[in-house]
Write a structure and sequence with these properties.
coiled coil, 4 helices, about 150 residues
Length: about 150
């Protein structure tokens, strides 16, 4: 019984491994086809006159920049939506703070300025930016690979 169970587990692992290998082979085949396609385009580009090469390069750069602009526009819209949401939340919290301060009439006056100072410190959070991109450190190899290709 134990031996059969182990055999079944081993067969399951072998089947999973074979499926994973097949998926990886397919991925390699697709990448190879893409590489051959890019090499063919490169060879065709080399056969063109220098003027046409420059024009083709400019068209490709325009396409890349257009796509990048669309991505940035989408990101900007998301950030603006998030900003509006955060402003609404801030208004709600400010109202709650005002209501709380109004209900704390018995609290000594010397404590109130300290509480306000704490609130101001919490509202602003500094960020240290380096460059134009924001990404997670673990995504750096993937980002570099995508930049190269």
């Amino acid at each position: 019984p134990v031996l059969r169970l182990l055999e079944a587990q081993l067969q399951d692992q072998r089947r999973e491994h074979e499926e994973e290998m097949e998926a990886l082979r397919n991925q390699v085949d697709l990448m190879q086809e893409e590489l051959e396609k890019q090499q063919q385009q490169f060879l065709q580009t080399l056969q063109l006159s220098p003027e046409v090469q420059v024009e083709l390069g400019l068209q490709q750069e325009i396409t890349r920049l257009t796509n990048e602009n669309l991505d940035l526009k989408e990101l900007l819209e998301k950030l603006e939506k998030n900003e509006r949401k955060l402003k609404k939340q801030l208004k709600i919290y400010m109202k709650k703070v005002q209501d709380f301060e109004a209900s704390q009439t018995t609290v000594p006056v010397e404590r109130r300025p300290h509480e306000r100072n704490m609130q101001v410190a919490v509202q602003r959070k500094e960020k240290d930016f380096q460059g134009m991109l924001e990404y997670y450190k673990e995504d750096e190899p993937l980002l570099i690979q995508n930049l190269i290709t």
